[in-house]
Amino acid sequence: MELVARFPATRVLIVGDVMLDHAVVGRVTRISPEAPVPVVEYDHDEYRIGGAGNVANNVRAMGGAVDLVGLVGRDRQGDVLGTELRTRGIGCDGLVVDDSRPTTTKQRIVTLRNQHVARVDYENDRDAAPEVEAAMARHLDRHLAAAGVVVISDYLKGAVTRAVASHAITGAAARGVAVLVDPKIPHIDYYAGATLVTPNHVEAETATHLRIRSDEAATRAGRVFLERARCQNVLITRGEQGMSLIGPATDTHLPAEAREVADVTGAGDTVLAALALSLAAGASLAEAAQLANLAAGIVVGRFGTATVTPAELIAAAGA
User: Fold this and answer.
1) Could you tell me the CA-to-CA distances from 65 to 220, 281, 315 in Å, in that order?
2) Of 101-110, 198-207, 306-315, minimum mean pLDDT range
3) Which of 37, 44, 163, 190 is the most buried (most CB within 10 A)?
4) How many domains does the structure of the chain reveal?
5) Does residue 178 form part of some domain?
6) What residues are annotated to the active site?
7) Which of 272, 14, 274, 54 is nearest to 143 (CA)?
8) Each residue of 172-222: pLDDT tens digit?
């Protein structure tokens, strides 16, 4: 597939909330005598990149180059996250160390059979301070010159402020570069001018106060979303009902590609990465959405956050 073959020549700039997923893995053989809870005998640790970092990981897995701008704390988790990013070839010199917050970390206690026992979140979701925003803006400016597309990955953890989003969108527009946004509805006013915003159907319903149960309803909600967010296009991801791309003059509804759904965790990150790479490689929005739909169909057939390879995309496109 010619489009996928052009991915290695692309570069994606991602700004957003970077996270570390830390699994403490062990075995459970008894219940605590102190309380009715399982006792987990430690076996090993596992680390994965989460949030905006998972979008970057998907971009790399599909063959593109990527630079990441975000926040970490001055802590061991930030060091581990940096190591994990560098190991995967993800440009992370745009990560700003913020002494006022921990590195956003989801620590899960899980068994060797992948059963979740508990989760502890380390985070400070306060908006980045002005001096931290300024540092992120400098990194954005430095990397924009080489970027074929800009992605804003918003998880409401403090990195995507109004100022940071505006700086990314304005700077990309000045260079004729598309901006894609994985949104959070409380920040919907931040995304004005973005090329494409990608809410899931629940987020789209929340933003528009409209139920989405058909292609026609998706079109209506998409039109309202465009007005509400003041963006150029919207792609509503609808799970087993596929995707709906709504633009100024055209609507495209794509049926779901998945034959079997194992886990939807991280599928939105895969969709965003495929969209970004496709646009950077010269695809139209409709072509990018079709490829992203194929990528989603592959990744939801696997457990946990997963990635897709170029060979898998090419095979799926030819199926």
Assistant:
1) 36, 12, 22
2) 306-315
3) 190
4) 1
5) yes
6) 269
7) 14
8) 999 999 999 999 999 999 999 999 999 999 999 999 999 999 999 999 999
